[in-house]
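Proteins fold reproducibly. Take a sample protein:
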Amino acid sequence: MKSIPVMELHSSTDLDTKIVNTTCPYCGVGCGVTATVQQTAMGQKVSVMGDVDHPSNFGKLCIKGSNLADTIGLQTRVLQPMLGRKTSIDNQRKTTDWETAIHLIANKFQQCIDDYGRDSIAFYVSGQLLTEDYYVVNKFVKGYLGTANIDTNSRLCMSSAVAAHKRAFGEDLVPASYEDFEHTDMVVLVGSNTAWCHPVLYQRIMKAKEERDLFVVVIDPRFTATCETADLHLPILPGQDVVLFNGLLQYLQQHGHADTVFVAAHTLGLDAALESSQAEENIEDVALKTGISLEKLHLFFEKFAQIEKVMTLFSMGVNQSSQGVDKANSIINTHLLTGKIGKRGAAPFSMTGQPNAMGGREVGGLANMLAAHLELENHEHQQLVQTFWGSPLIAQKPGLKAVDLFEAVESGKIKAIWIMATNPVVSLPDADQVKRALDKCQFVVVSDICQDTDTTQYADVLLPALGWGEKDGTVTNSERRISRQSQFLDAPEQTKADWWAVSQVAQKMGFSGFNFKNSHEIFLEHAQLSAYQNLDVSSRQNIKNFRYFNLQGLTHLSFEAYQNLKPIQWPVLNNDQNEAQYAQLFSEGQFSHADGKARFIATMAKKPINLPNAEYPLILNTGRIRDQWHTMTRTGLSANLSTHKAEPYCEIHPNDALKYGIKEGELVEVKSAWGNCVLRSVVSDNIRRGQIFAPIHWNDQFASDARIGKVVNPVVDPISGEPEFKHTPVIIHPFYTQWQGVFYVRDGFEKMVQASIESLTWWTKIKTTKATRYELADRRKLTETTKHLKALLPFENEDFEWLNLDDPSAHMSHSVIMKDGILIASLYIAPKALLPDRDWVASLFKRERLSAMHRKALLAGQAMSMGNSEGPLVCSCFKVGKNRIIDTIKEKNLSNEKQVTACLKAGGNCGSCLPEIRGLIKACQMEAVE
């Protein structure tokens, strides 16, 4: 793959082609992307590939990044400001202009301040914002409105790591780089399904493992795709991470593996940390509490002790907990004790979830932070920021964190809220509480690219934001690397940058300091604040204001230099900074606490706040899947991303399935004290008994009742405020219906049938090429439902041709709808085993016309040829299914994934499916032995 340069206008060979380097908008890896825009007779054609020169990914992209071009259409966009809520069919929005919308927001905010005080206003923003957007909104809220009631969805994924870093290091920072994973001798992945959630970094680790003797440990209650190539999987019981790492700390101390020179010179607090972890001084007790075998614990402890270079990557499984901060600090403690920090290939490494969670931290995006890594409750820091901004006042106390913020909205303490680039009705725990809160709120503003989300329904003012490809600014990934997210598409006329909308409201309220012309001016101010009264690492005399976060070398960037800024890690202290100069922070043993020393933090294992009981005996764990992102408002538009895991589901152990009467592939209701939802069952021994797992992504736009957030326990970590997404007591039951079926409708007709679909008991929506697929179920009798459904479908006039096959005694009803020889829709209701192959039906919508044989096959619900089905999709890039991979493995006696790729191409593009292919190879080998 050749490097493609950034081109501002056109290539020399094709005047209708533009090539721009930018950054992926999904996970915290922060991959570089090369976007190519071609002007064709049919309009703009966009293609994407990995940027081979970007140091975060060197040309690699995962399946989500590879399919970014599928998500940039205008079909779901909000394209101009709108007024009025849309919480029912009777409620309709009306369009307006920006001037009216800005005037309304400014007046409402001022009225709230006058009548109820400054804390009656709140903002809830997102790690999807660019740093420049983040900076302006935080400046406006904390420096001009004078409240700290601004929090972010990053609270839900990395705030526990932030608090742990600040306690241990004195500053929120990740001390290492991705390159360290290529120079380490041991990688410990804690609470992270890296193969699915951060695939490009995982592939980088796997490549290092192929090339050298790299020992990989995965600590996770589930056996995930990440475990496929691990040397050691520790299936820890939920919530026992502090026990495990306190036990490791005790083991290292007892067996003489402490780096006593490092500890004495560069740390404080070891005695208290050892005392607080005394309950874990016996490894047998640790094994009993964690559910990990004694043999595996010994191996892990001894490997960590003996190997000098260890990287411990921790992510949501650690952070999303009522003990998340202590979990992270217990990990950091083991690195401080052994001096495995500040060295190449040795560090604790917090992996963030979103593309700009780190950038949000830089600008004080959380309710308890000030910009530039300054402390909100530090009076001197308050004065420093207020002086720099020249603002009339400054927030002086922490604002409300996400869960508390929406509780305050429901109670009426907060009268107005502005939500940006996030969907809290889906993503927050106890999500129906967020619904109630927004329903009661006096004034709700939402900035988004999507017109209809679960959250935009409650907007009194809906503002059209810029989408990926239209935005211009910067993001910072998990290794502190700042990258440009560059515009390569013309934005729709009325869509605006979030920083622009906030600046307009600020100016309308009479505030100066918001006359920004572009993102370049904002970035310079952000960089200047980072360097204001800050010193470089070497001088450190005015220690009280020192921060490693310092962009001094970028404070005088010209507009052209900003446009062409290469990816760079902070701190940036000069213009010609050596790329590797600050790859490993703390190399000199200098931390950000006033005395320059790190802190051991005393952590004590505690039981989760809500334990399983007779009413709710199972533990629900939630997380991401490989091909979807957050609440599917973008990835759900891509047919390629909707095939791997097409329906909302929950995994359950076979013994629990038997106990609770659950059958594979049937609908089940998952219920907690906070809510319930309906999912498809997946019976798997990859999960421990007593636990179930469900993905976070599905919303009310894509399924009738699959928002797992409304089931999730809303308890939070007392320090970070991060919710407990990994430990909710639940019960699971079969969800009984009279029948199940599948319905396909051609693109362009889906809105016409949506009301019909929503009249059924249960449905889920899946994007395919040229059509939308709906899985259906209902509690009414088959004849009653089919009569009702067919009457509602808008295909009754003479333009449409119906083919019908009904057999009520066999509980079957097939309908095929044609127009001018083109397939428009097909409906199949039948026993599950007799429903047609989904991929085969979808493939017929790609045909311009159907033959007589195709028509007969469609009506019969079965292909005329007897070719084998691909089975569930494994490789989304090349559309290779599980059955074909298994057949090829057996037929050709394949023993590794490279051979599979050579035969089928599967795994040969983004590589996201390689862990699953390895799992299939292992399964075939085990079957052969038996």
Notes: The radius of gyration is 28 Å. Residues 1-13 have pLDDT under 50 and may be disordered. Residues 739-860 form a domain with the Alpha-Beta Plaits fold (CATH 3.30.70).
